[in-house]
UniProtKB/TrEMBL annotation:
The keyword Transferase applies. This is PFKAL protein. It catalyses: beta-D-fructose 6-phosphate + ATP = beta-D-fructose 1,6-bisphosphate + ADP + H(+). Keywords: Kinase, Magnesium, Metal-binding, Transferase. Residues 7-71 form the Phosphofructokinase domain. Transmembrane segments: none annotated. It comes from Corythaixoides concolor.
């Protein structure tokens, strides 16, 4: 920590040792840091449920609010006929959020199909496919063939090319 490293991260699973709680690890690093570094606690499940918003949260919330109001005014113009609003299509109730790095509106009916309401999570999470790779990086005794299907070939080219498929 006294060198060029600016950040560190400690990850803890909720099923780890009963004595190594988040508070214990925070207290340990805080006392051992002695002014060299500081610590913060972020419990992701709780963080996603709310809490005190940061300046980034406030700024991002304002941007999403503007996009949502613009979307609503466009929708109202589309469905307004003869002094009445006919908002009975599936995309009339949406949730705004990030989808693959892009701010997108997702119809509630589509989200209902892919959401695990009991655990408040998506039913399919993209990062679960990376678990075998993470085990390989952590030096678990796991074979590369379990992670990547197909055959391995020896690479003899010295340069990479998109046209040749790398």
């Amino acid at each position: 920590m006294k060198t060029d490293i600016q950040r560190g991260l400690v990850l803890r699973n909720e099923k780890c040792h009963e004595h190594y709680t988040t508070e214990f690890l925070y207290n340990l690093y805080s006392s051992e840091g002695k002014g060299i570094f500081d610590c913060r606690i972020n419990v992701l499940g709780h963080l996603q449920q709310g809490g005190a918003p940061t300046p980034f949260d406030r700024n991002y919330g304002t941007k999403l609010g503007v996009k949502a109001v613009l979307w609503m005014s466009e929708k109202l113009q589309e469905v307004y006929r003869k002094g009445r609003v006919f908002a009975n299509s599936g995309d009339s109730a949406c949730v705004i959020g990030l989808r693959k790095k892009v701010v997108a509106f997702s119809p509630v009916m589509e989200l209902k199909k892919v959401t695990d309401f009991e655990h408040r999570l998506p039913q399919e999470q993209w990062w679960l496919n990376l678990r075998l790779m993470l085990k390989m990086l952590a030096n678990y005794q796991i074979s590369l063939t379990e992670y990547i299907s197909g055959t391995m070939e020896h690479v003899t080219r010295r340069t990479l090319s998109i046209e040749k498929g790398f």
